[in-house]
């Protein structure tokens, strides 16, 4: 039995990871620590609510006493840190919370893990701290080239800068204490349970409600889209078999301009759901401050070392995603109405 402390496991990627792991393995126990901010939603976890290998704890990764207590109570083998403030637009308005959760929260987790795992002559056997990071720490690309693991960090937004700060602290724990750590830096994820402040679920929700589709600037910024399940698989592989002290980039080989994404969603909804949804809903709006132009990853290292590659093409993944939102309209209604905030009280008290 391997015990994971997964943080942020009620958010978008974290909940997909918890569901993926508990479906794949019978010998995995997950302690899921999540503060349940606006982005955390226990409804994402209803399929594992009765699973004895899933233990949910509501709390903050910055809380030293709480995290220390979890290490004392459970024999934790792996930490996988998803918990973060994750939205660039919010970070532009409120940078402090990004520094608190993303940097100080990571330092607290590293420190509590170190206290629990460090031995006189090294480290407890088989333990690992894994940091879920982002390609945004590398900054912005021009028309050509890709982010490599060796690309110098050059973050621009308060969000990406806080994630870069966290990555440097993880590296410091490896360089200074030889702590067994790994980092993955992934591109933009999409899929089920994605909070509708991010581009793809926002577009789907707005299309279904005949609302404007806001496109920042000229709509030609490029993101490399990664289906969330492919990302979960990559993290599982890196935590188990990645080399200690290493960074692995995880990308989808699915670069698209934002306007291509918008038109793809509109076309699918128009053809399959509601013919009255057309490109007339597209509305060009003021650009994001400091808007990174292009992100792109060549995931060669993870492919060569661990055999991972993005299995889901964008054409397949986007249809699966839109279908999921169509099949789960109630989830979207709860998330956008705020009703989900009461879900915890209803389900767990
Ligand atoms: P999300 O915003 O959907 O979920 C974040 C989760 O963390 C929420 O459940 C929230 O309640 C929890 N949380 C926030 N602050 C906390 C705190 N102080 N203590 C405990 N829990 C806290 O984010 P996501 O999109 O699932 O991203 C997960 C991770 O992946 C983040 O670290 C993010 O930087 C990284 N990432 C995301 C993407 C993407 O496309 N979504 C891309 C690259 C990297
Ligand atoms: P987002 O989903 O916020 O992810 P990130 O900023 O981390 O890449 O945005 C993806 C891209 O879509 C980004 O270039 C900003 C753009 N965007 C819009 O054009 N309109 C929107 O309403 C949103 C939320 C994003």
TrEMBL record:
InterPro entries attached to this UniProt entry: dTDP_Gluc_deHydtase (IPR005888), NAD(P)-bd_dom (IPR016040), NAD(P)-bd_dom_sf (IPR036291)
UniProt keyword annotations, A-Z: Lyase, NAD
Entries under Gene3D superfamilies matching the protein: NAD(P)-binding Rossmann-like Domain, UDP-galactose 4-epimerase, domain 1
SUPFAM superfamilies xref list: NAD(P)-binding Rossmann-fold domains
Enzyme class: lyase
EC number: 4.2.1.46
Cofactor requirement: NAD(+)
Gene Ontology biological process terms, A to Z: nucleotide-sugar metabolic process
Any one Pfam family match given in the protein's UniProt record, by short name: GDP_Man_Dehyd
GO molecular function, one term: dTDP-glucose 4,6-dehydratase activity
Catalysis: reaction(s): dTDP-alpha-D-glucose = dTDP-4-dehydro-6-deoxy-alpha-D-glucose + H2O
Domain NAD(P)-binding: 5-319
Family: Belongs to the NAD(P)-dependent epimerase/dehydratase family. dTDP-glucose dehydratase subfamily.
Protein's UniProt name: dTDP-glucose 4,6-dehydratase
């Amino acid at each position: 039995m391997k015990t994971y402390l997964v943080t942020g496991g009620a958010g978008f990627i974290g909940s997909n990871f918890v569901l993926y792991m508990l479906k794949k393995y019978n010998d995995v126990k997950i302690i899921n620590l999540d503060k349940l901010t606006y982005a955390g939603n226990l409804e994402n976890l209803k399929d594992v609510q009765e699973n004895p290998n899933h233990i949910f704890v509501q709390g903050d990764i910055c809380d030293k006493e709480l995290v220390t207590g979890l290490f004392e109570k459970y024999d934790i083998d792996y930490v996988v840190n998803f918990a973060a403030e994750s939205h660039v637009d919010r970070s532009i308005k409120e940078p402090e919370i990004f520094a608190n959760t993303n940097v100080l929260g990571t330092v607290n987790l590293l420190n509590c893990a170190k206290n629990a795992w460090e031995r006189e002559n090294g480290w407890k056997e088989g333990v690992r701290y894994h940091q879920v990071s982002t390609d945004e720490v590398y900054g912005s690309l021009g028309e050509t080239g890709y982010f490599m693991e060796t690309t110098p960090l050059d973050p621009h937004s308060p969000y990406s800068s806080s994630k870069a700060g966290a990555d440097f602290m993880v590296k410091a724990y490896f360089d200074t204490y030889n702590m067994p750590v790994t980092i993955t830096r992934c591109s933009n994820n999409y899929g089920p349970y994605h909070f509708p402040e991010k581009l793809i679920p926002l577009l789907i929700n707005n299309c279904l409600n005949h609302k404007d589709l806001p496109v920042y600037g000229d709509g030609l910024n490029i993101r490399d889209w990664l289906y969330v399940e492919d990302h979960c698989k990559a993290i599982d592989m890196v935590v188990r078999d990645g080399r200690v002290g290493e960074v692995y980039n995880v990308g989808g080989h699915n670069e698209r301009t934002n306007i291509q994404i918008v038109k793809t969603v509109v076309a699918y909804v128009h053809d399959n759901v509601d013919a009255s949804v057309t490109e007339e809903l597209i509305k060009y709006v003021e650009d994001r401050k400091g808007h990174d132009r292009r992100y792109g990853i060549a995931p060669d290292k993870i492919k060569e070392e661990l055999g991972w590659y993005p299995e889901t093409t964008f054409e397949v993944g986007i249809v699966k995603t839109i279908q999921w939102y169509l099949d789960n309209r109630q989830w979207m209604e709860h998330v956008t109405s705020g009703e989900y905030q009461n879900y915890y009280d209803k389900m767990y008290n």
